[in-house]
Structure formats: C-alpha cells, structure tokens
Amino acid sequence: MSPASDQTSALVVAAQSGDAMAMHDLLDHLAPYVGRICGSIALVEGPDAAQETLVAVFRHLGSLRDPAALHGWVRRIAVREAVHLARARQRTGPVPDLSELPTPGDVEQATDIADLLTRLAPEHRAMLILRDREGLSEAEAASLLDLPPGTVKSRLHRARKSFRRAWEA
C-alpha cells in the first residue's frame, strides 16, 4: 500500500469514528475525483450529482468495511448518481442548444472530446468514462453498474460507435 493510500485509509477510519477534521480532509480529497466523474457523465447536472454523491458517501461512510476500497466505493456511488440525474434531466429538462456544438467542417472544434460526449446518452457516456478514462475492465464496469456483462459489452460497442460517428462527422 502506498503512503497516500495509508493516509487515505487513516482518514477514513478517523472519519468513521466521528473525527470532524478527518471528515473535512476526506471531503477535500474526494471532491475533485467525484467532480471529474460526475461532470463527465452528468454534464450540466454534474455539480448536483457530485453533491449528492458526497452526501451519500458521508451518510454511509460507516458501512464501508475496507478503507482501502474507498475510491472504488465512491466511484460506484458517483456513477449511479450521475447517470440518475442525467436521465432525469433528459426526461424533464430542455434539449441542449445544438448550435453550440462543433460543426462537421470545423476540424479544430471537432477534436474537443467534451463536446462530443455531450451528444451521447448518459449510459453511453458512463461506459466510455469507466472503460476509457477510468480504465475499468468490462467485468468491473458490469459490477459497478449492476448490469450483466453482455449489456456492458453491447452498451460499450454502441457508445464507441456513436462517438466515432460524431467524431467523423
């Protein structure tokens, strides 16, 4: 275990025992990580998803048995919150202004991956983030999302196909 992992585990144990400073330090440690995951998946709902994630983490921190598993546990909560809020926005929120997305003839803007990700469904963004940015295997992604491995495989295939189509447009 690395010294950073030892420190994080010690923070978790202290926070679980009610140490307010440890909870504060743990929040400072987790907030950027959670923000990156939630922002990548939930887009404009990212800050809300991150906040919901951090609330859930601290509400249920006592149930975490292995402090070394903190990041995986937090990632699972963050992905679920981000997908949940992104889906809810799709059902109730306004459609994004497509005029702000890069035009097919504008090569410089088309390389902006963040803009391309906004075109994908939240489930597809989650697949690409988990597999290609977070480096999880298909089995790990399936476990994290409570999906059968075949579903993860097909979603990942569709997500990459959609991304490629938008990239080449």
Task: Describe what you observe in this structure.
The protein is mainly alpha-helical and 169 residues long. It has 2 domains: 1-94, Orthogonal Bundle (Rna Polymerase Sigma Factor, Chain: A), CATH 1.10.1740.10; 97-169, Winged helix-like DNA-binding domain superfamily/Winged helix DNA-binding domain (Arc Repressor Mutant, subunit A, Orthogonal Bundle), CATH 1.10.10. 74% of the residues lie in helices and 0% in strands. It has helices at 3-16, 20-42, 46-60, 70-92, 107-110, 113-118, 122-133, 138-145, 149-168. α1 (3-16) packs across α2 (20-42). The model is unreliable at 92-103 (pLDDT under 50).
Give the helices and strands, then pairings:
Blueprint: H1 3-16, H2 20-42, H3 46-60, H4 70-92, H5 107-110, H6 113-118, H7 122-133, H8 138-145, H9 149-168
Helix pairs in contact: 1-2, 2-3, 2-4, 2-7, 3-4, 7-9, 8-9
Mean pLDDT over the residues: 83
Q: What gap, in angstroms, lies between the N and C termini?
A: 45 Å
CATH topology tier name of the largest domain: Rna Polymerase Sigma Factor, Chain: A
| Approximate strand percentage | under 5%
Quickly give the structural class: mainly alpha
**What proportion of the residues is helical, as a percent range?**
over 70%
The total tally of domains equals 2
Q: Can you identify the CATH class of the largest domain?
A: Mainly Alpha
Compute the gyration radius: what is it?
18 Å
Per CATH, which architecture of the largest domain?
Orthogonal Bundle
CATH homologous superfamily descriptor of the largest domain: RNA polymerase sigma factor, region 2, helix turn helix motif
Order of helices and strands, N to C?
Answer: HHHHHHHHH
| Major sheet details | none
